[in-house]
Design goal:
The structure is a single chain. It contains six helices and no strands. By secondary structure, it is an all-alpha fold. It has one domain. Helix 2 packs antiparallel against helix 3, helix 2 runs antiparallel to helix 5 and helix 4 runs antiparallel to helix 5. The longest helix has 26 residues. It is elongated. The two termini are 28 Å apart. About 5% of the residues have low confidence.
């Protein structure tokens, strides 16, 4: 909410929406793997503008693909939920958790930056 409130551009708003949807996927219980698709949709337009976000897009896409392949395997073997978390599941979840915190920090640092001259001029003109 803070990132959306502080968003001064469409790029910052898209990043905030990505963080919100990715957090929804990460922290809601028993989340279906299809809900990882929606954050990726909001990351695509801004991923091409930053090397950091391009790498985040690649990592999240890879974990999304792993998630789909793993769930497909479980569905085919009729054991939809694994009895015990294994190293692959813990690894993918840890990577996604690290990505969530990295992108959240990146977004907070970007939104807490002081206004540039153009943004300052447009906000001061609105106060008159």
């Amino acid at each position: 909410s803070y990132m959306i409130w502080r968003a001064r551009s469409a790029r910052a708003a898209l990043l905030a929406i990505f963080v919100a949807l990715f957090g929804f996927f990460m922290f809601a219980p028993r989340m279906h793997e299809r809900y990882l698709y929606y954050p990726l949709v909001f990351l695509i337009p801004i991923a091409l503008e930053s090397e950091f976000l391009t790498s985040i897009f690649g990592v999240v896409s890879a974990t999304f693909l792993f998630n789909l392949v793993y769930i497909k395997h479980l569905t085919d073997t009729s054991s939809y939920f694994p009895d015990q978390p294994n190293a692959a599941l813990i690894g993918a979840a840890s990577i996604n958790l690290a990505v969530f915190f990295a992108v959240t920090a990146y977004g907070l640092l970007r939104t807490s930056a002081p206004l540039d001259d153009a943004a300052r001029a447009s906000t001061s003109g609105a106060d008159r």
